[in-house]
Amino acid sequence: MATSSTLGQTQRYAAGALLALALRQAQTHQTVLLGSHGLDDDPPHPDDSAAAAEPDARDLWTHESRGLLRPVLRFLEVDPKAWAGVEKTAASSDPKHHIGAFLRKVFEDEDDDEKARSERSDQELALAKAVDAMAMGLESCTIVDTVAEALKPAATASCSANDDTATSARDYRKMAVLYMLLSACVADVNMAEEGMGSPRVTKGYDARHRVALRLLATWLDVHWNKMEAVEIMVACSAMAAAREEERQSRENSSPSSRWENWKRGGIIGAAALTGGTLMAISGGLAAPAIAAGFTALVPTLHTLVPIIGASGFAAIATAAGHTAGSVAVAASFGAAGAGLTGTKMAKRIGNVKEFEFKTIGQNHSQGRLAVGIFVSGFAFTEEDYSKPWEGWKTNLERYVLQWESKHVIAVSTAIQDWLASRVALELMREGAMQTVLGGIISAFAWPATLVSAADFIDSKWSVAIDRSDKAGKMLADVLLKGLQGSRPVTLVGFSLGARVVFKCLQELEQLGNNVGIVERAVLIGAPVSVKGEMWEPARKMVAGRFINVYSTNDWILGITFRASLLTQGLAGIQAVDVPGVENVDVTELVVGHSSYLSLLQQILDHLELNTYYPVFYPCTPRTK
Questions:
Q1: How far is CA 463 from CA 353, 395, 407, 414, in A?
Q2: Residue 125 has what pLDDT?
Q3: How would you label 593-613 residue by residue, b for 16+ Cβ within 10 Å and e otherwise?
Q4: Residue 567: predicted pLDDT
Q5: Which of 119, 140, 232, 345 has its CA 20 to 30 A from that of 363?
Q6: Judging by beta carbons within 10 Å of its beta carbon (0-12, 13-18, 19+), is residue 447 exposed, middle or buried?
Q7: How far is CA 144 from CA 135, 137, 147, 238, 365, in A?
Q8: C-beta pairs of 134-139 under 8 Å, 24+ apart in sequence
Q9: CB-based contacts of 371: which residues, under 8 Å, 6+ apart?
């Protein structure tokens, strides 16, 4: 059976094995941070013992029961007889040796004729040009012009292919590998229909897949913004798939139609159907810039997906500029109905009155395959819920959660008013505030004026803490209902908002096996006790990086959360000694708790969230 993939059979097998190794390594790094014992060393594997296969093997992301690997291998048309061997290799104790071997296999050409090699080279070059064009558009935010400019050399791709260096050829192959693996990850393939193993557990784009692709891109030395460009191009292909399926449904096509051939063929950029549900893309591709940019990519994409053809892609490029053209895709993605922006209340918990998502940035309805939800927890006005996040440059589809603003603003204002008082100024001059962070002095030894201040703030703070815990449960409910779509989620919160994020992760764990929803989590200045909370279970709910950002001189947080501070420690002012939690000290940057309002963009830039590797150096103030 012919396939439009530029990869040969051995290369597809090697690509699948690399994804398996990346999945296993990413799971290991949930508890063993990369670099914590030397980047050149193999991190220890807790389940690398001889007895790991039974029964602990079921805990591995690469185990067939997880449904993460075998659907991908099937999509790649890897011989089912080889699947168990791939799984066994991924669980082995010497991953880096296998990585090198499979990378070599990926870059080796199949033993075919000169014409086939030339055609494959031209296709890979065209794909690389298309990815570069889209990546340039993402960086400059002017997709139309940059796509057209970057694709100019593609017209002469065939003439110049022979002049490219071996290094360039390897770069083109990298994009072909990542494109096809991403396509396999977002395709919902029901293996049970054909008696080929367990059905897939999750639907859509699993967070664990995205983390594994991050690691694989690192191994291939591919910048993540190119992978984000690939995500949008796969989204475009899925839109084309939806349009084609709609057309064939109207024409009462038989099961042996071109759509069925496409689904079985493992085509680059395909999104297969499972039980009538299409893996959907964010509200379609309604942005005119994306639509026009995609139009420029049509000549390249139709050579990679010839069954759809240029005319089919041209049609979807036109439809991409209109929301109506994306209804079929958006409906199963949560965007055609309420979605996040229509969610003012998931379900009432306690006395929570306000719980609403608001969009920020320009990345909505543009085929983004990942979502960011940002939660403020210290605010003086409602604008402070959104403003701190607006300047951060990211390609995520972004939302701000506005929750219980009445109580958050009340406690923030109470703290501000007390800090402005004469008593507080005198205590600051005497250095009495720093006694809060000493760790030895009990609350009974505090100056009386400091105790009275804490009591003044305490009533408002206790209410805000209670509401943050309940808002966290509501956020978990939203994610479980899939209102963000079948897309990986990045959660970032500061102050009480960080507690909302933490409680959300706890709730996800307590409600069942909900790994695969959250890709990354960042807690900034978190009022969460270090020892009294369920950090390990919460960590397991995050497929990728889990970051605790703290400042050792945040005595405001120490005062307001003094009970937990003195008995169990506090994440917002110290490192968390939990395997897999990345601690980032911003003491040199943050002079007080309210500083986070103006420093969030700088802190997030410092974290370099799009890198797979953790950040181990302290954050220092920018020099002008």
A1: 13, 35, 7, 13
A2: 79
A3: bbbbbebbebbbebbebbebb
A4: 53
A5: 345
A6: middle
A7: 12, 7, 5, 21, 16
A8: 134/229, 134/230, 134/232, 134/233, 134/293, 134/297, 135/223, 135/225, 135/226, 135/228, 135/229, 137/229, 137/289, 137/293, 138/225, 138/228, 138/229, 138/232, 138/395, 139/225
A9: 282, 340, 396, 397, 398, 399, 484, 485, 487, 488, 489, 490
Give the per-residue pLDDT at 255: 45
Q: Residue 274: beta bridge partners?
A: 277
Domain with CATH 3.40.50 in the chain: 355-607
| 140: Cβ contacts below 8 Å, ≥ 6 apart | 146
Tokens, residue 10: 């051995």
Identify the residue with better confidence: 31 or 119.
31
Is pTM beyond 0.70 here? yes
Instruction: Please name the residue that has the structure tokens 């990298």.
Output: 174
Structure confidence by residue, pLDDT tens digits, 216-265: 999 999 999 999 988 877 766 665 555 555 666 666 555 445 444 444 43
Q: How many CA atoms lie within 13 A of 188 on its CB side?
A: 17
Q: What is the Rg, in whole angstroms, of the alpha carbon atoms belonging to the chain?
A: 26
Give which of 489, 552, 548 is closest to 524, Cα–Cα: 548
pLDDT, residue 530, reads 87
Q: How far is CA 93 from CA 35, 230, 452, 561, in A?
A: 18, 32, 58, 44
What is the predicted pLDDT for the residue at 59?
85
The region that residue 183 occupies, defined by phi over 0 for left and psi between -120 and 50 for alpha, beta otherwise, is alpha
Percent of the chain with pLDDT over 70: 61
Q: Which one, of 99, 80, 81, lies nearest residue 89 by Cα? A: 99
Q: Which CATH class is domain 355-607?
A: alpha beta
> What is the structure's pLDDT at 171?
85
Instruction: Note the Cα 541 to chain centre separation in Å.
Output: 13
Q: Give tens-digit pLDDT for 505-534.
A: 999 999 987 889 999 999 999 999 888 678
Mean pLDDT of 369-378: 93
Asked whether residue 152 carries a pLDDT value surpassing 70, the answer given is no
> Does residue 503 surpass a pLDDT of 70?
yes
Amino acid at 339: G
| 357 three-state secondary structure | strand
The tokens describing 406, both together, are 């009445």
Spatial contact of 240 and 183, defined as CB atoms under 8 Å apart: no
Cα separation of the two ends of the chain: 61
Percent of the chain scored above 90 by pLDDT?
Answer: 33
- Please name the residue ranges forming H helices in 70-150: 70-75, 83-90, 95-107, 114-140, 143-150
Q: Which two tokens stand for residue 306?
A: 């010839």
3-state secondary structure 257-320: CHHHHHHHCCCCCCCCEECCEECCCCCCECCHHHHHHHHHHHHHHHHHCCCCHHHHHHHHHHHC
- Is residue 82 within 8 A of residue 16, CB to CB? The reply is no
What digits encode the pLDDT tens for the residues 257-295?
544 444 443 333 333 222 222 223 333 333 444 455 555
